[in-house]
Amino acid sequence: MASETLLPPPPTVADLTDDTLRYILHRLAPADLLRAALACHRWRRAAARCVEGTPPPLLGYFFHPADTPLTAQIVASSGALHPAAFAPLDASSPRLSLDGLGGGTKGFSIYDVHLGLVLLLPESLPSGILPRILVLDPASRRRALLPQPPRDALPGDRWRGRRHIVGAAVLSRAHPSRLCFDAVCLTVDDEHPRAWVASYRDGECSWRALPQDTRVTVAFDPFWFEGRCVHAAGDIYWHICNSGRLLKLDPATLNFSYLLAPSELGDRNKKFRIGEAPEDGRLGMATVEDQELQFWVRGEANWSDNGWFLQKRMNMRKVFDTVPGLPRDKVSRIICIWLSDIDAGRTGKLFIKTEGYGRYSFHMDTAKLERLATEDGKEYGHPIYAYFVAWPPAFLAPEI
């Protein structure tokens, strides 16, 4: 009887070379890469070399729920400000919350979500003096309540009586594993914008007031600035109501400038929103005025309108016909429908607000319209902030 040939044992995961392991991990989605990094020390080291250049995973959305008006109103009702809520992207996403973080968020509302941080300001902003800024890291459950700038932050401050506080934004983050960041507060001092920068390091906050940017003149009532900003294509923008331009802040130079919307939008007083093109992150602008979707992209083209070219145009009449109870006549629809956000999660969706008929998301490729409502019947408030985890995560980020 011939002796049986013993076959070598099949290879295991442990037999993978480092190069092969990194090749496999490089092909994983960010969420799966994080799960793989928790397997063992070797996989964690390999995953740490794969996170560079990988986009951070979108976990969900923060917003303040709003009561849906029983009937449509020409003037939007403010309603009660409900505590911030989080809607996870899917069943596998963590259910984050701002509740229970130190002193909580009572009396504050969200003004910015960026780099894994949530920035909040008091519901009622003071006049002439800058407010305290609350910054939270929902993933690590850390918080920082920044003090107001000291009086000597701006020597000889003669603008206090003529200062308008617009809002604040997250400027940068030093490291994802630490609560070290810079925030900027925008004020208009006597017709010129000014940036106030708060730097938070190791539990200590320092302020510096930059000079007025006299190259930019605010020749209108600064009340028309929207307090909430938009991060898009590396810059920070503030919308201006009833205007064909936006205020832009370059985070690298802290210089202000105006950005013109396409004349087809701005010259006709159409409501538009700025954001990013979902496919490549280029600066984008959208509107759904007159029951027509337009999506404009910033860039080079044979023909442009103030540096923009029209990428997509779609008739929205049949889409809006599916909204229960929405009036059929064009004038009523113009009054009670407007675009509230371009999804900063770059999902290809727009967020559409109706006065009295709910809040919706609309996918520009599939033309799918979905109602956005909480489990207790409230609608998603404005704005709707996409939340990305700080990237790379702390346990994969190199220490500095």
From TrEMBL:
<dbReference type="Pfam" id="PF12937">
    <property type="entry name" value="F-box-like"/>
</dbReference>
<protein>
    <recommendedName>
        <fullName>F-box domain-containing protein</fullName>
    </recommendedName>
</protein>
<dbReference type="InterPro" id="IPR001810">
    <property type="entry name" value="F-box_dom"/>
</dbReference>
<feature type="domain" description="F-box">
    <location>
        <begin position="19"/>
        <end position="48"/>
    </location>
</feature>
<dbReference type="InterPro" id="IPR036047">
    <property type="entry name" value="F-box-like_dom_sf"/>
</dbReference>
